[in-house]
Amino acid sequence: LTVEYMKDHSDKEYTVFKADDDAEYVQTIDIDLATVPHTVAFPHLPENARTPENWGDVEIDQVVIGSCTNGRISDLRHAAEILKGKHVKKGIRVIVFPATQAIYLEALKDGTLSTLVEAGCVISAPTCGPCLGGHMGILAEGERCVSTTNRNFIGRMGHVDSEVYLASPEVAAASAVTGKITAPEEVM
């Protein structure tokens, strides 16, 4: 997959590093990702991960879907699938950031962005914004955000007394519908 990606995205020479054919390993760990429950990183560290039985009832003010981390076309499509025919809960802000202009254009052409807008989301151009506390969606004191970005340190998205909960695009979309941290199965 990586080699195919490089063929489509770079003309530069690159080196593929791989293990020797006769390499021996101390341990092999196989994980069936289909069995891993939804996980949300609670404030204020990405490793503060919790599964649904430990989420509690966390009400939110904002959802951010996308950025350089989870702004792939597949991420936007998964969020749109959950939001299709539904609407963002009144009072919840939802900002969508496709990762690149190419992804933005693809999502525009295939109707993904229309679905998100019809559900009540605001679409941004690909840019750095609330993830680093720059602009668009900066959190005020006491506000909570479910975000598909990659960091949730104190003050990362605005006020030092705000909270960022890191989640998948699916959990973020479901949370936008309910106004609290929610597993997608609860709204599908």
Q: Could you characterize the architecture of this molecule?
A:
This protein is of the alpha/beta class and about 190 residues long. The chain has a single domain, classed as Aconitase, domain 3 (2-Layer Sandwich). It has helices at about 1-10, 65-70, 75-85, 100-110, 110-120, 170-180, and strands at about 40, 50, 60-65, 95, 120-125, 145, 165. The strands form two sheets. Strands 5-4-3-6-7 form a five-stranded parallel beta sheet.
Highest-level CATH class: Alpha Beta
Radius of gyration: 18 Å
Helix content: 25-40%
Q: Tally the helices: what do you get?
A: 6
User: Average pLDDT, to the nearest integer?
Assistant: 92
What's the arrangement of strands in the largest beta sheet? 5-4-3-6-7
Question: CATH homologous superfamily?
Answer: Aconitase, domain 3
CATH topology value: Aconitase, domain 3
Number of strands: 7
Shape category: globular
Low-pLDDT residue intervals, each spanning 5 or more residues: none
H-E string: HEEEHHEHHEEEH
**Tally of separate domains:** 1
- Helix-strand category: alpha/beta
Q: What about the largest sheet?
A: 5 strands, parallel
Give the name of the CATH architecture. Answer: 2-Layer Sandwich
